Amino acid sequence: MKKHSILVSLGLILLTSCTGILDTAPRSQISDNNMWTTPSLSKAGVDGLMYTLYRHIDGLSTIVPSDGSGGFNRIGLEGMGYTSILDDSNHFLKNATKKASGLENSSEWRSMYNTIHACNRAIAHLDRKVVGDKLYEQYICEARMIRAFCYTRLVMLFGEVPVYLEEVQDVDCTKSQTVWDDCWAMIIKECTECIDNAGFQANNFAGDRLYKPSKGMAYALRGNAYMWLAADKNPEIYPDGTSIGAARIKEYYRLAAADFAQVKACGFGLWQGKWEDLFSYTNEHNQEMIFPLEFTFTDGFSSIWQWVIGARSHLNSWTRLVPSTAFVDDFEWSDGRAFNWADVLPGWSKLTEIEREVFFLRDSLKTFSKYVEEGTDVEKYITLSGQLEKVVSRIGQETFDAYYLDLGNEARLRTGFDGRDPRLDKVVVTPYKKYQFINETSLTPIDFQLRWPRFKRQDGVEDSDLFPEFASNMVYLWNKGIVNDGSTLDRNYDGTDWPLIRFTEIQLMWAEALLGSDNPGDALNLLNEVRTRAGMPPFPSQDPVSLLNEIRYESRVELCLEGKDFFNEIRWNTFKEKKFQGKDFWDPRSCWNSGGWKTGYYYVEHMWPLSAPLNEIVMNSNLKKRPWCWTY
């Protein structure tokens, strides 16, 4: 099926940057003197424009390598969202005072600008006489759309950024930030000119430019720009910023909805197979995938996602990202009702957060003595007997005696998971249900269960306890993104592509835009197409507030673990409400929503937009510092 000749070109372009770090190139790389002199080299140059977005060295000692070679800060950006918890001591959310020298600031800035300058170089040097009229127009639009994508991410993170649309050297990177509205106006102009270019492909499903940028991507980026303009962020970015007014907001929504409709007209649409199959290696290229970052099984171009989201029981992974407990509790019942543990577990509301652990305990903690009598598993008895003592010391003997069911605790808990949104068990590893993970030794899928307390790590034993990196507490784990079909047998080498833009995201923003432009009926229809595909009942109401909340629910569930949630929560003004549960400090939670076992996150006003990185400010004195919470 793939991968096509992506690796032929990657790394061939000698890059310049405005990142304070000169990118050096091996002697084997092709210089700009002849990079664009033949059709094959020109193709290689355009194919290599996303080279800097890859993570070219392995290792998870930091969120991204400190030498700047880490490409997308995929892990850090996902951890900034509501749906995920990131275990990393360097994460900037863990600092009460935010540092402009943080990796979240510098790595994303460096990665995006390296790519932008590569695109500028390609646009300056591509020769129509060398490649012909048709490919010239296609290549130019590809470079402009990759550049527009990078600027989109930068503006969504930093609010204002310097704009370079021409080839420049490091010494000439002296611009100050362009104001918010003008940044989006530039992106809209770039998209519009590529949309109007007759030589630019409508979609990327066939032909020589398979899976490359297309007019569908241009409409998606332009519509996204209108959505951010409709979010009316001026008061957040500028101390004296004023609201743009209801009429302009509605007009931006109308323009966004029109663009999202054109994405579908270009041939993109919802995946029509089983929901969970959309995220597999086999099906990674389909009508959903508007703009993917393609991974291979080659050093430097392979995803390390299995290392990040797995468990010690899965390829000896590190469990750096886990689902937020609040996010898991958000999943609706399968009939669309809101979920609440108090409706499932008698006495839930009477117990403290710590005492609620009793409902998540495994069966037979009181009767493991039978194993000693039968002589079958003395080690298991000794281990779990000791764990029982620890449980009682935490929750108290009275709570244990009143609520624990020695034969039935697991089944009672499952009533709070079974019958929920069908995506729950496909997205999250929930307790006392079998899931397959790849055993590191046998390299075959083996059934595991998430149980508490755990017995011990037994990777090669069928149906043993799942053992994540967080062995000191019971937390949920990701099931979405876990590869167990044999296509990935090493935590360093996952070839599954990362959808940077896919149609479900566009359809949900389309519904939001229609609602914002006073068309709740069509918005409801688009929302229900997404729900129906997932096995959920149609949402019944056109009430604007209820409908908007349901669109946001679907966005969180559908796009979790795809690096989208942080941007959405910021755009919706729900970041503090969801990520921090409305508080100034919020810590990671166990499955029963008890905190204190990991260092938490600090919310401060004006945390968004991010500050320009400190090293960039040192190199370019024209860059404005972000005031308020940032330290330099």
What does this structure look like?
The chain has about 625 residues and is mostly helical. The protein has a domain at about 310-480. Helix content is about 40%, strand content about 5%. The protein has helices at about 5-10, 40-45, 75-80, 105-125, 130, 135-160, 180-195, 215-230, 235, 245-265, 305-310, 325-330, 370-375, 380-395, 395-405, 410-415, 425, 505-515, 520-535, 545-560, 565-570, 575-580, 615-620; strands at about 85, 100, 290-295, 320-325, 430, 435-440, 445-450, 465, 475-480, 500, 585, 600, 630. The strands form 6 sheets. A 3-stranded mixed sheet has the order 6-7-8, with no helix packed on it. A two-stranded antiparallel ribbon has the order 1-4. A two-stranded parallel ribbon has the order 2-13. A hairpin with a 6-residue loop joins strand 6 (about 435-440) and strand 7. The relative contact order is 0.13.
Topology, please?
Elements: H1 6-9, H2 39-47, H3 74-80, E1 84-86, E2 98-99, H4 103-125, H5 128-131, H6 133-158, H7 180-195, H8 215-230, H9 234-237, H10 246-265, E3 289-293, H11 305-309, E4 321-323, H12 325-330, H13 369-374, H14 378-395, H15 397-403, H16 409-414, H17 424-427, E5 428-429, E6 435-438, E7 445-449, E8 464-465, E9 477-478, E10 498-502, H18 503-516, H19 520-533, H20 544-559, H21 565-572, H22 575-579, E11 585-586, E12 601-602, H23 614-619, E13 630-631
Parallel strand pairs: 2-13, 7-8
Antiparallel strand pairs: 1-4, 3-10, 5-9, 6-7, 11-12
Helix pairs in contact: 4-6, 6-7, 6-8, 7-8, 8-10, 10-18, 14-15, 18-19, 18-20, 19-20
